[in-house]
TrEMBL record:
<protein>
    <recommendedName>
        <fullName>Stage II sporulation protein E (SpoIIE)</fullName>
    </recommendedName>
</protein>
<feature type="compositionally biased region" description="Gly residues">
    <location>
        <begin position="204"/>
        <end position="221"/>
    </location>
</feature>
<feature type="region of interest" description="Disordered">
    <location>
        <begin position="184"/>
        <end position="233"/>
    </location>
</feature>
<dbReference type="InterPro" id="IPR039248">
    <property type="entry name" value="Ptase_RsbX"/>
</dbReference>
<dbReference type="InterPro" id="IPR036457">
    <property type="entry name" value="PPM-type-like_dom_sf"/>
</dbReference>
<feature type="compositionally biased region" description="Low complexity">
    <location>
        <begin position="222"/>
        <end position="233"/>
    </location>
</feature>
Length: 407
Protein backbone atom coordinates (compact mmCIF):
# COMPACT_ATOMS: atom_id res chain seq x y z
CA UNK A 1 0.00 0.00 0.00
CA UNK A 2 1.36 3.42 -0.90
CA UNK A 3 1.86 6.07 1.74
CA UNK A 4 -0.82 8.70 2.21
CA UNK A 5 -1.13 11.75 4.41
CA UNK A 6 -2.45 11.00 7.90
CA UNK A 7 -4.98 13.63 8.99
CA UNK A 8 -5.53 14.08 12.73
CA UNK A 9 -8.38 16.50 13.54
CA UNK A 10 -7.41 18.29 16.76
CA UNK A 11 -10.87 18.31 18.31
CA UNK A 12 -10.26 16.79 21.75
CA UNK A 13 -7.58 15.71 24.19
CA UNK A 14 -7.13 12.35 22.45
CA UNK A 15 -5.74 14.11 19.38
CA UNK A 16 -2.29 14.58 20.94
CA UNK A 17 -1.77 10.85 21.44
CA UNK A 18 -3.16 10.02 18.00
CA UNK A 19 -0.86 12.53 16.28
CA UNK A 20 2.18 11.37 18.25
CA UNK A 21 1.58 7.72 17.38
CA UNK A 22 1.05 8.55 13.69
CA UNK A 23 4.30 10.53 13.54
CA UNK A 24 6.30 7.88 15.41
CA UNK A 25 5.04 5.10 13.15
CA UNK A 26 5.66 7.08 9.94
CA UNK A 27 9.11 8.21 11.10
CA UNK A 28 10.19 4.65 11.79
CA UNK A 29 8.95 3.49 8.39
CA UNK A 30 10.86 6.31 6.70
CA UNK A 31 14.21 5.67 8.39
CA UNK A 32 14.03 8.14 11.26
CA UNK A 33 14.92 5.84 14.12
CA UNK A 34 15.35 6.22 17.86
CA UNK A 35 15.51 9.75 19.26
CA UNK A 36 14.65 11.37 15.92
CA UNK A 37 11.40 9.40 15.70
CA UNK A 38 10.59 10.51 19.23
CA UNK A 39 11.20 14.15 18.30
CA UNK A 40 8.66 13.91 15.48
CA UNK A 41 6.15 12.30 17.85
CA UNK A 42 6.73 14.94 20.52
CA UNK A 43 6.19 17.79 18.08
CA UNK A 44 3.10 16.24 16.44
CA UNK A 45 1.56 15.54 19.82
CA UNK A 46 2.17 19.01 21.18
CA UNK A 47 0.85 20.69 18.04
CA UNK A 48 -2.36 18.67 18.36
CA UNK A 49 -2.57 19.42 22.08
CA UNK A 50 -2.22 23.16 21.46
CA UNK A 51 -4.98 23.10 18.86
CA UNK A 52 -7.33 20.91 20.88
CA UNK A 53 -6.94 23.16 23.93
CA UNK A 54 -8.60 25.98 21.97
CA UNK A 55 -11.47 23.74 20.73
CA UNK A 56 -11.10 25.05 17.19
CA UNK A 57 -11.14 23.53 13.72
CA UNK A 58 -7.43 22.79 13.59
CA UNK A 59 -5.64 19.69 12.35
CA UNK A 60 -2.24 17.99 12.18
CA UNK A 61 -1.02 16.34 8.96
CA UNK A 62 1.69 13.65 8.99
CA UNK A 63 3.27 12.55 5.72
CA UNK A 64 6.50 11.59 3.95
CA UNK A 65 8.56 14.57 2.83
CA UNK A 66 8.34 15.19 -0.93
CA UNK A 67 12.03 16.17 -0.99
CA UNK A 68 13.26 12.70 -0.14
CA UNK A 69 13.18 10.12 2.60
CA UNK A 70 12.03 11.99 5.66
CA UNK A 71 8.93 13.22 7.43
CA UNK A 72 6.77 16.35 7.41
CA UNK A 73 4.49 17.26 10.30
CA UNK A 74 2.21 20.15 9.36
CA UNK A 75 -0.50 21.87 11.39
CA UNK A 76 -2.91 24.72 10.92
CA UNK A 77 -5.03 26.68 13.37
CA UNK A 78 -5.28 29.99 15.18
CA UNK A 79 -3.88 28.45 18.38
CA UNK A 80 -0.47 28.45 16.71
CA UNK A 81 1.03 31.98 16.92
CA UNK A 82 3.07 33.13 13.96
CA UNK A 83 6.00 34.59 15.88
CA UNK A 84 6.10 32.45 19.02
CA UNK A 85 6.15 35.64 21.08
CA UNK A 86 3.67 37.11 23.52
CA UNK A 87 0.62 34.92 23.91
CA UNK A 88 2.34 31.93 22.31
CA UNK A 89 1.30 28.46 23.37
CA UNK A 90 3.72 27.31 26.10
CA UNK A 91 5.64 24.05 25.88
CA UNK A 92 4.55 21.89 28.82
CA UNK A 93 6.76 21.71 31.91
CA UNK A 94 9.13 18.76 31.80
CA UNK A 95 9.14 18.45 28.01
CA UNK A 96 12.52 17.67 26.55
CA UNK A 97 12.60 20.61 24.13
CA UNK A 98 12.41 24.26 25.00
CA UNK A 99 12.33 23.56 28.74
CA UNK A 100 9.68 24.77 31.15
CA UNK A 101 8.31 28.09 29.94
CA UNK A 102 9.68 27.76 26.40
CA UNK A 103 7.26 28.44 23.55
CA UNK A 104 5.94 25.79 21.22
CA UNK A 105 7.56 27.30 18.14
CA UNK A 106 10.89 27.73 19.89
CA UNK A 107 10.81 24.03 20.67
CA UNK A 108 9.91 23.14 17.09
CA UNK A 109 12.83 25.18 15.78
CA UNK A 110 15.14 23.28 18.12
CA UNK A 111 13.85 19.83 17.22
CA UNK A 112 13.19 19.97 13.47
CA UNK A 113 15.69 19.98 10.63
CA UNK A 114 13.63 22.65 8.87
CA UNK A 115 10.67 24.73 10.01
CA UNK A 116 8.34 26.97 8.01
CA UNK A 117 5.75 29.14 9.80
CA UNK A 118 3.32 31.61 8.24
CA UNK A 119 0.26 33.48 9.39
CA UNK A 120 -2.72 33.14 7.04
CA UNK A 121 -5.40 35.81 7.56
CA UNK A 122 -8.73 34.20 8.32
CA UNK A 123 -7.18 30.73 8.48
CA UNK A 124 -4.85 30.87 11.47
CA UNK A 125 -1.18 29.99 11.43
CA UNK A 126 0.31 27.16 9.37
CA UNK A 127 3.42 25.26 10.45
CA UNK A 128 5.49 22.63 8.66
CA UNK A 129 8.28 20.87 10.55
CA UNK A 130 10.52 18.63 8.45
CA UNK A 131 12.98 15.90 9.41
CA UNK A 132 15.32 14.11 6.99
CA UNK A 133 16.65 10.59 7.34
CA UNK A 134 20.39 9.99 7.50
CA UNK A 135 22.05 9.93 4.09
CA UNK A 136 19.46 12.14 2.38
CA UNK A 137 21.19 14.99 0.53
CA UNK A 138 20.41 18.61 1.23
CA UNK A 139 21.33 19.09 4.89
CA UNK A 140 22.78 17.03 7.72
CA UNK A 141 20.04 15.65 9.96
CA UNK A 142 19.84 16.92 13.47
CA UNK A 143 18.02 19.38 15.70
CA UNK A 144 18.07 22.95 14.48
CA UNK A 145 20.04 22.27 11.28
CA UNK A 146 19.76 25.26 8.94
CA UNK A 147 21.39 25.70 5.54
CA UNK A 148 20.60 26.08 1.86
CA UNK A 149 18.02 23.70 0.43
CA UNK A 150 19.18 22.56 -3.01
CA UNK A 151 16.77 22.27 -5.88
CA UNK A 152 13.08 23.12 -5.91
CA UNK A 153 11.01 23.77 -2.81
CA UNK A 154 8.20 21.20 -2.84
CA UNK A 155 5.08 20.59 -0.79
CA UNK A 156 2.50 17.87 -1.26
CA UNK A 157 -0.58 16.35 0.33
CA UNK A 158 -2.38 13.09 -0.49
CA UNK A 159 -5.55 12.35 1.46
CA UNK A 160 -8.03 9.53 0.86
CA UNK A 161 -11.74 10.15 1.23
CA UNK A 162 -12.87 9.89 4.85
CA UNK A 163 -13.19 6.30 5.99
CA UNK A 164 -10.88 4.78 3.38
CA UNK A 165 -7.20 3.85 3.55
CA UNK A 166 -6.37 3.87 -0.19
CA UNK A 167 -6.24 7.08 -2.21
CA UNK A 168 -7.18 7.26 -5.88
CA UNK A 169 -5.16 10.46 -6.34
CA UNK A 170 -1.37 10.65 -6.41
CA UNK A 171 1.49 13.02 -7.16
CA UNK A 172 5.00 12.73 -8.55
CA UNK A 173 7.90 15.13 -9.10
CA UNK A 174 11.27 14.57 -10.75
CA UNK A 175 14.30 16.44 -11.96
CA UNK A 176 14.88 16.12 -15.68
CA UNK A 177 18.01 17.05 -17.66
CA UNK A 178 17.70 20.21 -19.72
CA UNK A 179 18.17 19.80 -23.46
CA UNK A 180 18.19 21.83 -26.64
CA UNK A 181 15.28 22.66 -28.94
CA UNK A 182 13.26 19.87 -30.47
CA UNK A 183 9.90 19.38 -32.11
CA UNK A 184 7.84 18.38 -29.09
CA UNK A 185 4.41 19.65 -30.02
CA UNK A 186 4.44 22.47 -27.48
CA UNK A 187 2.57 25.59 -28.42
CA UNK A 188 3.08 28.96 -26.80
CA UNK A 189 0.30 31.29 -25.73
CA UNK A 190 -1.72 32.82 -28.57
CA UNK A 191 0.60 34.89 -30.72
CA UNK A 192 3.76 33.41 -29.24
CA UNK A 193 6.20 31.11 -31.00
CA UNK A 194 7.04 27.65 -29.81
CA UNK A 195 9.75 27.62 -27.19
CA UNK A 196 12.63 25.25 -26.63
CA UNK A 197 11.85 21.71 -25.62
CA UNK A 198 13.10 19.87 -22.60
CA UNK A 199 13.28 16.72 -24.64
CA UNK A 200 15.68 13.96 -23.69
CA UNK A 201 16.18 10.51 -25.19
CA UNK A 202 13.34 8.13 -24.37
CA UNK A 203 13.95 6.49 -21.02
CA UNK A 204 16.48 9.07 -19.91
CA UNK A 205 16.75 9.01 -16.14
CA UNK A 206 16.37 11.88 -13.74
CA UNK A 207 19.32 11.08 -11.55
CA UNK A 208 19.15 8.99 -8.42
CA UNK A 209 15.81 8.78 -6.71
CA UNK A 210 15.67 10.23 -3.23
CA UNK A 211 16.90 7.93 -0.55
CA UNK A 212 17.68 4.63 -2.28
CA UNK A 213 20.28 5.61 -4.88
CA UNK A 214 18.46 4.08 -7.85
CA UNK A 215 17.65 5.93 -11.04
CA UNK A 216 14.30 7.67 -11.00
CA UNK A 217 13.00 5.26 -13.61
CA UNK A 218 14.37 2.20 -11.84
CA UNK A 219 11.50 1.29 -9.58
CA UNK A 220 9.86 2.61 -6.45
CA UNK A 221 11.82 4.98 -4.27
CA UNK A 222 11.85 4.75 -0.52
CA UNK A 223 9.16 6.44 1.50
CA UNK A 224 6.06 7.52 -0.37
CA UNK A 225 6.45 5.00 -3.19
CA UNK A 226 5.25 4.51 -5.80
CA UNK A 227 2.39 7.00 -5.70
CA UNK A 228 3.55 10.30 -4.33
CA UNK A 229 7.23 10.07 -5.11
CA UNK A 230 10.04 12.48 -5.84
CA UNK A 231 13.06 12.01 -8.07
CA UNK A 232 16.46 13.53 -7.46
CA UNK A 233 16.62 17.15 -6.44
CA UNK A 234 18.32 19.12 -9.22
CA UNK A 235 20.67 22.03 -9.24
CA UNK A 236 18.16 24.75 -10.00
CA UNK A 237 20.52 26.37 -12.52
CA UNK A 238 21.06 23.29 -14.69
CA UNK A 239 17.94 21.14 -14.65
CA UNK A 240 14.20 21.26 -15.15
CA UNK A 241 11.54 19.94 -12.79
CA UNK A 242 8.51 17.96 -13.95
CA UNK A 243 5.44 17.54 -11.72
CA UNK A 244 2.31 15.42 -12.05
CA UNK A 245 -0.99 15.00 -10.23
CA UNK A 246 -3.20 12.07 -11.23
CA UNK A 247 -6.82 11.53 -10.21
CA UNK A 248 -8.04 7.97 -10.77
CA UNK A 249 -11.71 7.83 -11.65
CA UNK A 250 -13.80 7.38 -8.53
CA UNK A 251 -11.99 6.35 -5.37
CA UNK A 252 -10.95 3.21 -3.51
CA UNK A 253 -8.48 0.43 -4.49
CA UNK A 254 -9.26 0.45 -8.23
CA UNK A 255 -8.63 4.20 -8.49
CA UNK A 256 -5.49 3.84 -6.36
CA UNK A 257 -4.21 1.12 -8.71
CA UNK A 258 -4.61 3.43 -11.71
CA UNK A 259 -2.83 6.22 -9.84
CA UNK A 260 0.07 3.92 -8.92
CA UNK A 261 0.50 2.84 -12.55
CA UNK A 262 0.51 6.46 -13.70
CA UNK A 263 3.25 7.36 -11.22
CA UNK A 264 5.36 4.39 -12.35
CA UNK A 265 4.98 5.42 -15.99
CA UNK A 266 5.93 9.00 -15.10
CA UNK A 267 9.15 7.90 -13.41
CA UNK A 268 10.08 5.56 -16.25
CA UNK A 269 10.84 8.58 -18.46
CA UNK A 270 10.17 11.95 -16.78
CA UNK A 271 12.35 13.80 -19.31
CA UNK A 272 10.07 13.11 -22.28
CA UNK A 273 8.32 16.08 -23.89
CA UNK A 274 5.04 16.46 -22.03
CA UNK A 275 2.74 15.23 -24.83
CA UNK A 276 4.86 12.08 -25.16
CA UNK A 277 4.93 11.63 -21.39
CA UNK A 278 1.14 11.92 -21.30
CA UNK A 279 0.94 9.28 -24.04
CA UNK A 280 3.17 6.97 -22.01
CA UNK A 281 0.88 7.37 -19.01
CA UNK A 282 -2.15 6.74 -21.26
CA UNK A 283 -0.65 3.47 -22.48
CA UNK A 284 0.17 2.39 -18.92
CA UNK A 285 -3.46 2.93 -17.85
CA UNK A 286 -5.00 0.79 -20.58
CA UNK A 287 -7.21 -1.78 -18.87
CA UNK A 288 -7.70 0.32 -15.74
CA UNK A 289 -10.62 2.61 -14.93
CA UNK A 290 -8.54 5.53 -16.23
CA UNK A 291 -7.63 8.88 -14.74
CA UNK A 292 -7.34 12.62 -15.13
CA UNK A 293 -3.70 13.68 -15.37
CA UNK A 294 -2.02 17.07 -15.11
CA UNK A 295 1.63 17.74 -15.97
CA UNK A 296 3.72 20.87 -15.38
CA UNK A 297 7.40 21.47 -16.10
CA UNK A 298 9.60 24.40 -15.11
CA UNK A 299 12.77 24.68 -17.18
CA UNK A 300 16.07 26.27 -16.23
CA UNK A 301 15.21 29.47 -18.11
CA UNK A 302 12.08 30.03 -16.02
CA UNK A 303 9.56 28.99 -18.66
CA UNK A 304 6.70 26.65 -17.76
CA UNK A 305 5.07 23.96 -19.89
CA UNK A 306 1.69 22.39 -19.22
CA UNK A 307 -0.25 19.40 -20.52
CA UNK A 308 -3.45 18.11 -18.91
CA UNK A 309 -6.32 15.77 -19.76
CA UNK A 310 -9.30 15.78 -17.43
CA UNK A 311 -10.11 17.73 -14.29
CA UNK A 312 -6.71 18.25 -12.65
CA UNK A 313 -6.31 22.01 -12.04
CA UNK A 314 -3.00 23.74 -12.81
CA UNK A 315 -1.82 27.24 -11.91
CA UNK A 316 1.14 29.56 -11.60
CA UNK A 317 0.87 31.52 -8.34
CA UNK A 318 2.67 34.52 -6.89
CA UNK A 319 2.36 36.80 -3.90
CA UNK A 320 0.17 38.99 -6.09
CA UNK A 321 -2.39 36.22 -6.67
CA UNK A 322 -3.17 33.66 -9.37
CA UNK A 323 -0.92 34.65 -12.26
CA UNK A 324 -2.04 32.00 -14.75
CA UNK A 325 -4.70 29.30 -14.94
CA UNK A 326 -4.13 26.53 -17.43
CA UNK A 327 -6.93 24.85 -19.31
CA UNK A 328 -7.20 21.09 -19.80
CA UNK A 329 -8.28 18.88 -22.67
CA UNK A 330 -11.40 16.75 -22.16
CA UNK A 331 -11.04 13.00 -21.98
CA UNK A 332 -9.92 10.13 -19.76
CA UNK A 333 -6.30 9.01 -19.79
CA UNK A 334 -6.27 5.27 -20.41
CA UNK A 335 -9.57 5.33 -22.26
CA UNK A 336 -10.59 8.09 -24.68
CA UNK A 337 -7.69 10.53 -24.57
CA UNK A 338 -7.40 13.04 -27.44
CA UNK A 339 -3.97 13.68 -28.97
CA UNK A 340 -2.26 15.50 -26.09
CA UNK A 341 -1.10 19.05 -26.62
CA UNK A 342 1.06 21.29 -24.43
CA UNK A 343 1.31 25.00 -23.89
CA UNK A 344 4.32 27.05 -22.87
CA UNK A 345 4.57 30.22 -20.80
CA UNK A 346 7.83 32.03 -21.62
CA UNK A 347 8.41 33.22 -18.05
CA UNK A 348 6.77 32.15 -14.79
CA UNK A 349 8.42 35.05 -12.93
CA UNK A 350 9.59 32.74 -10.13
CA UNK A 351 6.00 31.79 -9.39
CA UNK A 352 4.92 28.64 -7.60
CA UNK A 353 3.53 25.82 -9.74
CA UNK A 354 0.39 24.25 -8.30
CA UNK A 355 -1.49 21.13 -9.36
CA UNK A 356 -4.49 19.70 -7.52
CA UNK A 357 -7.23 17.16 -8.06
CA UNK A 358 -10.91 18.01 -7.89
CA UNK A 359 -10.82 16.99 -4.24
CA UNK A 360 -9.97 20.67 -3.75
CA UNK A 361 -12.90 22.92 -4.66
CA UNK A 362 -11.61 24.92 -7.62
CA UNK A 363 -13.63 28.00 -6.66
CA UNK A 364 -10.84 28.99 -4.25
CA UNK A 365 -8.95 30.48 -7.21
CA UNK A 366 -11.69 33.03 -7.95
CA UNK A 367 -11.01 34.81 -4.67
CA UNK A 368 -7.96 33.31 -2.96
CA UNK A 369 -7.88 35.78 -0.08
CA UNK A 370 -4.83 37.53 1.34
CA UNK A 371 -1.66 35.56 1.78
CA UNK A 372 -2.76 32.22 0.32
CA UNK A 373 -0.98 32.30 -3.05
CA UNK A 374 2.24 33.60 -1.49
CA UNK A 375 2.60 30.72 0.98
CA UNK A 376 5.80 28.65 0.84
CA UNK A 377 5.41 25.38 -1.07
CA UNK A 378 5.52 23.12 2.04
CA UNK A 379 2.48 24.93 3.48
CA UNK A 380 0.38 25.67 0.40
CA UNK A 381 -1.16 22.19 -0.21
CA UNK A 382 -2.05 21.75 3.47
CA UNK A 383 -3.67 25.17 3.83
CA UNK A 384 -5.50 24.81 0.52
CA UNK A 385 -6.91 21.37 1.35
CA UNK A 386 -7.75 22.33 4.93
CA UNK A 387 -9.83 25.31 3.83
CA UNK A 388 -11.23 24.11 0.49
CA UNK A 389 -11.47 20.33 0.58
CA UNK A 390 -14.47 18.98 -1.34
CA UNK A 391 -16.78 16.57 0.47
CA UNK A 392 -16.57 12.84 -0.25
CA UNK A 393 -13.55 12.76 -2.52
CA UNK A 394 -9.85 11.98 -2.43
CA UNK A 395 -7.63 15.04 -2.53
CA UNK A 396 -4.08 15.58 -3.73
CA UNK A 397 -2.19 18.84 -4.17
CA UNK A 398 1.39 19.47 -5.24
CA UNK A 399 3.27 22.78 -5.10
CA UNK A 400 6.71 23.35 -6.65
CA UNK A 401 8.53 26.63 -6.08
CA UNK A 402 12.05 27.77 -6.93
CA UNK A 403 14.76 26.92 -4.43
CA UNK A 404 14.56 28.73 -1.12
CA UNK A 405 17.11 29.35 1.56
CA UNK A 406 16.34 29.04 5.24
CA UNK A 407 18.09 31.13 7.87
Amino acid sequence: MTAVTVLVPAHDRDAAGTAARAARRAASELGLAGPRAERTAECAGELARALAARAERGAVYVQPSPLGRGLDVAAIGSALPEDGGAGAERWPDGARAGGPGGTLLEALRELADDLVVRGTPGRGTAVCARWRASGVPGRPPGPGAREAVAGPDVGALRLPVDGESSCGDAWAVAAVPAAGPADDGIAGPPGAGAGPSLAAPPGAGAGPACGDGRAAGGGPAAGNAPAGRSGARPDAATAAVTAMVVDGLGHGPAAAHAADLAVRAFHDSPALPLPRLMTAVHQALRGTRGAAVGLLRRSADGSVEHCSVGNVRAYVLGRDGVRHRFGAQPGVVGWNMPPPAAQRLPDALDGTLLLHSDGVDGRWAHSPGPGLTGLPAPLLPVVLAHAHRAARDDVTALAVAPARRTP
